[in-house]
Amino acid sequence: MNAGRFDNRVTRLLGVAIPIVQAPMGWIARSQLAAAVSNAGGLGIIETSSGELDAIRGEIQRMRALTDKPFGVNIAQAFVRDPAIVDFVIARGVRVVTTSAGSPTRYTRQLKDAGLTVFHVVPSLAAALKAVDAGVDGLIVEGGEGGGFKSHQDVSTLVLTPLVRARVDVPIIAAGGICDGASMAAAFALGAEGVQMGTRMVSAAESPVHPNWKQRIVDAAETDTVLLKPAGAPALRALRTARTARIEAGEEHAMAALAGGVRAVYFEGDLEGGVALAGQVAGRIDAVRPVADIIADTTREFFATVARLAAACAPA
Q: What is 196-231 written as a DSSP string?
């Protein structure tokens, strides 16, 4: 960092000015949102967890029309089981891939051999060490307070990030609980060189979800999410609703409610129609704002926080 500008391993690997990555939320992380992030200096990501690969092909094409800045694609292995997904991504000239929801040994070598930069999402130290052994360029270290799919044995970003940093040398992007410059600075203090934002981007003006979902995030308290732990499936952190209470009571399965409620929740605004994913940081988000403003304000607050801490810790 020099004169309010970023220059570290994450910015160099991703080719971005600001080491802020948008999370690859299914049906949400598409060209409208991802292009706004890339144009603001961060890294927009196109999702594949929806499984709608024909639609994803179109979204990648639209990205090239909407931005000339770098962007990436996420390969969510648990939801896209076709091994041709790697060829699909490589053929579209994508240069950065994040992999998640599966083993880093599955696709890393093939992606690296094709010249791509690969970051793998990890929820634990053991997973981080496995990913490094598999040859990834970097890690997205995801704490349990974040929204969406989670490990049943969730560990907070505050604990996980420095734990992983102490054991690996690759660049770390911290995820979970990050929505502004102060939380970004905290992640850097713990050893990260970049951050990923999910819930903050779901609530952004360019997010394609229904305004009801965005407003529920804005209105949420820090206690208004719940970690659902369905048997035989990943855990889910979601906004607390009457529907999630029934899921907790064992009256229905979380994954069935999530999959069956995509249209109702995402695009019709019926938050009881399924499961609305969100992280605990929803309690710190107080407005729907354009992506460019979110990233610009985060950057300003980050450097102001670093400067304030440096001044407070200066020798007498």
A: EESHHHHTSTT--S-HHHHHHHHH--TT-EEEE--T
